């Protein structure tokens, strides 16, 4: 069904605020109400099911009345909740063809593999996106690139980067310095990505203005993050309680990306990974997307892909002693390096 809806004697400024930057508000209405919208001047062409068209007309009228002032992300989300169901996750067929190009310090930055391109599209189209896979697949770098792109386009007001403060298999003890200096080693990979995408000078100015915030995951409880691009890195080391806490921090006008490698979990053996659980619990939830990377998506040194592939094919826990160890002592013999008990 097709219907045309026009605003007679419409004010161009109000129409622009109704449609949003680059017609972004219209795209959100399309996704939420299951219709197709096209605008020419003050006339809207609406195509879709009858119920969806009627709700769209009422929603456009409401937004036009409110467009005497800029229509904020919060106002749009509240209107969508009133006039239609929550926005469903877009299908692959609805995704635009061709590469997704981001505007960062690196001109023409885009995905290098089909899964990376899919990952970028999902981050642009969904409120919450999970990127799960081995090291070197660009999970964190592309997420930070999307955040920088959104900040440059004024799609968000700030970037919030966080990760669990968990050591990789060793205990470092008490670290010297103030809080920022104590958590700095854990967050250094995020700094590296920012410096690469923005340059050190711009990153320093962004920190001074509060446009970028980096914090350990433990300090996120109780916060509501509005108009922000939020990234949780190394999420495989988040507990189930931390993961639920983090995912419920997202506010109006915000996007959230969760990245992690479930093959490199550094939590104690008795603590289940919140990322593994979230992948099962949230599968199929509207508005949440998952991208699962493999060794074929590794974009580091070619040897990294072969290392990842070798570990994936190796049986879990089936570690062999080295030839020298096997010659020194057999399976039933005590290890001469291990101290004997009394």
Task: Indicate the topology.
Blueprint: E1 2-6, H1 12-19, H2 24-33, E2 36-40, E3 43-47, H3 50-66, H4 73-83, E4 101-102, E5 109-110, H5 114-125, E6 128-132, H6 139-152, E7 158-163, H7 179-198, H8 200-209, E8 212-216, E9 228-232, H9 240-247, E10 255-260, H10 274-281, E11 288-292, H11 302-313, H12 323-328
Helix pairs in contact: 1-3, 3-4, 5-6, 6-7, 7-8, 9-10
Please give a handful of descriptors for the protein shown.
342 residues, alpha/beta, 6-stranded parallel beta sheet, 3-stranded antiparallel beta sheet, globular, disordered C terminus
Q: How far apart are the termini? A: 85 Å
- Helical amount: 25-40%
User: H/E order of the elements?
Assistant: EHHEEHHEEHEHEHHEEHEHEHH
The number of distinct β-strands equals: 11
The strand order across the widest sheet is 8-7-9-10-6-11
Mean pLDDT equals 79
Summarize the structure in short.
This protein is of the alpha/beta class. The protein has helices at 12-19, 24-33, 50-66, 73-83, 114-125, 139-152, 179-198, 200-209, 240-247, 274-281, 302-313, 323-328, and strands at 2-6, 36-40, 43-47, 101-102, 109-110, 128-132, 158-163, 212-216, 228-232, 255-260, 288-292. It has a 6-stranded parallel sheet with strand order 8-7-9-10-6-11. Strands 1-3-2 form a 3-stranded antiparallel sheet, covered by helices on one side.
